[in-house]
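Meet our chain:
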Amino acid sequence: MSIEQITGRYLTVEISGAKRRIYFEEAGQGQPVLCLHTAGADTRQWRHLMNDAGVTTNHRLIAFDMPWHGKSLPPEGFECEEYLLTTDAYIETVLAVVKGLGLDRPILAGCSMGGRIALQLAALHAHMFSGFIAIEASDFQPAWYDIDWFHRPDAHGGEMGAALVSANISPFAPLSERWNTLWMFMQSGPGVFRGDLSFYTRDDSLIARLGQIDATRTPVHLLVGAYDLTCTPEDAARTARAIPGATLAVMEELGHFPMSEHPAGFRPFFIEALEKMRASQAAAA
């Protein structure tokens, strides 16, 4: 029998003038690292790293469920509204969590839509963070699928979502972690994956803001899986070239959900990214 080191609690913050009860988990001590999940998923994607003593000895990993996701309930009256995530609401939520938890310039690590918003924050609010790890992130990825399929009365949105993302998981991923990853999408609330993808595939505002990011002052490191069909290595490389001082690593045996689909394969890349953040802070001191 064993008890994991991860602890979970709730934080109440104000977003768009209304209170939101947000679930978060944390583990470790030292430099705070705020971790953002992908579209249609939740904090469970980060559980392996949060249970890794080699990571948490010097880093306090914090992951939270966005409203509508995981254990963060939708707002009151959600049954009368359509969930469509926007860049402004996403940024406001992340900053509210940073402030609510009293985090002093944490590292921000986000994957997929979390990586996209990390780059937005690097452009607009870099002073609030000590570094950005943008995983499976690029300037803009238009949908190559019809997102309305994920919220229909004649289809199970969760299973449809899992079917889509299964193509973005590396063939090197352990079978058990592949299915654990897909299960999170199967559990996604009605319309949530569609609402997240609306942000991810329709908001192209980051393109014009890339020039505002200065990775020579606040480090930006991009990680991309070679088996990612949504954000390809070419997409990530194009984005990195547009950001002065940004660095990039291609993860040869990983896909779009590296921290959950193949945690052992992702671990060395994440540790290297943390080291880049540390080295940059030391050089600036």
